[in-house]
Design brief:
Helices cover 42% and strands 19% of the residues. The protein is built from 15 helices and 13 strands. The chain is globular.
Length: 382
Amino acid sequence: MKRYLYANILNDLSNKMVFITGPRQVGKTYLAKEIMTEFQNPQYLNYDNVLDQKIIAEQSWKRNADLIVFDELHKMKNWKIYLKGIFDTRKNNESILVTGSARLDTFRQTGESLAGRYHHLRLNPFSVKEVSESISAYNAVEAFHQFSGFPEPFLNSLNKNNITAVEFSNRWRNQYYTDLVREDILEFGKLQELRAIKNLLEMLRYKVGSPISYKGLAEDLQISPTTVKKYIEILESLYIVFLIKPFHKNIARSILKEPKLYFFDSSYIVGDEGIKLENTVALHLLKHTQYLYDTKGEAISLAYVKTKEKKEVDFVIVKEGKPTDFIEVKLTNKTISPNLYYFANRFENANFIQLVHNLDNAQHKNGIDLLNASNWLISLSA
């Protein structure tokens, strides 16, 4: 299965370095090795490998290499200065692909500038669109809730009976989050902070889709709100969770309001099928907006909207500062949310959509589209 960024990476490699970031085990290395098949003399170098470290340090890779893949290079001291030199002195036919864990995206933002030398593409878990040739849209959403959209547990679920697939998924998930806490979180926080971050992560599993109160979480954990915010930023930097801020015409005011939080793994959250569906839709919309931003340069983002009177819509797609799509998510409720009508009367040029997972027939009522969730998700860009 070719990942959705495949063609974009090949195109971007023709003129700049390409950085691929994303969660652990989302398929970055697999994708890089697939890209290597398009070249005659590619070379893969992983900084975690002692022998590869020596080759990287001495720049002793094959002289006829037309693609060099650097994996986990951000672990090397002064890696950005190193890459800058490699890129500026490379041969005309030499392409450079840089992959790594989510930490690469964080470290990319600090220190020596690589401005103008690279394209950055974010790789996300599977979406309905990506797996549509292997499984129906409805069943894909169900599988994301049970097994997640990460390649290993999802693809395993297609080839095993349900009991075996569930056991495999549970074991994969336990190991995945153990490794994240033990290795990645420790790189950002101190050892004495680890217990608090683990407790916060466990609490956040129950708070998906609700505005995050740093003060409330701080009281529960007996730490300061500032520290809670710092820990959530760590979890966000590691692509464990992502935040969606409220939309407001006044950008400064939107920043002050509480964000909502979602996980990159819908199967990890604690809640009913309704909240898992909301998380899955959130992740699809994030993937859609990031893809258009990273590959097309569109000024697009994902938000939610909530008034002082508590009239709220789950998601809003914003283009060039203007809302284009208001999206409400329901598991089975076919009665259109009155909040959609409220905002429809105030934003005439936007689309208003209620996505329902268990819906047989699409409908259009008074300017609102009532649509099957899985069928609509397959129409997104990625």
